[in-house]
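Researcher: Here's the sequence for the chain we discussed earlier.
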Amino acid sequence: MPEILNVRVEQQLNEVGDEVSAIIAVIRPILYGLLHALKQEVVREVGGYAEVKLFMLPRLYRPGDGDCGICFEYAVHDAIRRRDQPIIEKVNDSMRRYCRVPGQDTSSILFGAEKSGAIQLLETAENLLTDDSRLLTGEQAQPIKLRRYINMLSAAFKKPTTRLALPYSISGLWKADLFLGMRDSDRWVGTTVKINPRHLEGAKGLRIAIVPSQQGRNDRIQVDHGKNLVVCPLPYDGAFMELFYVAWGIVQQFIAADAKLPREVSLPIASHRMVAKLLEDRREFPLIDIIESLAPLAQPELLNSAEAQDRIDTLGDVTPDLTTVIAPVSREIV
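Model: Thanks. This is the structure I predict for it:
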């Protein structure tokens, strides 16, 4: 079922500087995203967006209900669609040399955007999957027809019992973030995207792992035989991507603490508590005013914000819970 997903692209302009000012720079668009992801009837009831005060957010915001999420994999997906040459070259090398994916027309399918936001998406604006689409798993067997199992993979997000019904060769494919492949050959590989390489996990059906390049380290494509993954470092600023994790965590803890400074066990790092305290001091003010007031405290020219809409297909007869995605796009490191 076609739906529209609101995407707020946060494009990195400069290197991450002072931690606190950088976190504030990132928290501003997160707060904006949360505000505009609230259900329209709720916003109208309080008198419009300008009247939504920060202390109201824990009462108005319901995770998974008009939710806002962060979708790191969108940056990779979008770069491939835009034919970003450095990204395409690395991805093609991973697929052709290590996964033996034939073809020339590289493409990407965004699968399961922000799974923690309880949404199952298959971004198929151009109807990329066909009845002949095959998934290459690296197993010595006939490649499976991917389209046949899409709904089952979607259900496996939430239902462990469904995972047991998947063929053994793709029993972990529900963990995929993207399907990378070649449109002309109609061959695809399950792909996981991780900001921190230490968080990589192998799973049956996954073949490629995309991570940011790490400064001072070898950025060549490597095979992790233990996890059965082809690890493909892309020229992204890992520190910038990690920053979004930190800022998102601070906001979530702040909301869970009723828009007050969370307990130290929930937010133990001093710099993170400093940012949460700045928010607590402003809890009686409208969110729109708070976002504006934090601008002088934010790292200047760290981000450029842009809004877009993407057509998605939901899996099955579900209505998307996630309506807004914040997509951090780091600068490419050369």
